[in-house]
């Protein structure tokens, strides 16, 4: 059993290495033009954002719509470290992520006593407060934003940090702490009755989600070398929320599929920017009508899904044949 699991993990790692090498070779030789490279980077950043928000909204059952605020904290925090303090890029990313995590604790402790719509309004308010503060601090560029940030993020950094995010969150979800987190989503009163410290696990999930949103912000700042407060407004939080809802609240692979799909749609609709939100809203309505649980629901993608379906189909065919 252990050997089979280890073999599966080695196979996945080999696939990831081959994929990374293929894209890196295409970038180095010029086969992949900057437009496609940009969209690949955006896909990875969106995956980090969607998976980290899914930990809060999907697995923990809290309704947060202030994720862009944590992304802004990470972006500005990391940019200050490289631009003002002249420290190495890994230190900047770590600082931005940890700073966003600290803000996650500060926001989570008082607001996670709220539920549903009230929590959504509180987190939305946090995102707008952060944006308002940034606009009024001249040291970080104020309303004009921060420019001249060293372009240190590249395909290698963004890809492997995306893999790290998915691995860490998947391991957390499958751990004892993750099971306690999911139990809060299923029934908070029952979880409390079973002795689970619901406040502790809510804050833990909120902090981890915020930390990785800060990491995504740091990568964003160092790839686009300029950041503005308007980039992190409530529409950005809405974009991330749409990815989570479309993919399925409680599915990491669903978030990845939705992040990739919506990044492609967004790139295709660049000339129709005004209609982008209309199309997003239509997509949400269609999904809510035909598949309210999202594309993957609470399931994860695996090849067993197909083998089970084929076995079920074979079973039905045999049953029909016997009946005849």
TrEMBL record:
Keywords: Cell membrane, Membrane, Transmembrane, Transmembrane helix. It is found in: Cell membrane. It is a multi-pass membrane protein. The keyword Heme does not apply. The keyword Plastid does not apply. GO terms for cellular component: plasma membrane. InterPro entries: ABC_transp_permease, LivM-like. GO terms for molecular function: branched-chain amino acid transmembrane transporter activity. The chain crosses the membrane at residues 12-32, 38-56, 63-83, 89-109, 118-137, 157-175, 203-225, 240-265, 272-290. Its main location: membrane. CDD domains: TM_PBP1_LivM_like. This is Branched-chain amino acid ABC transporter permease. It comes from Desulforamulus ferrireducens.
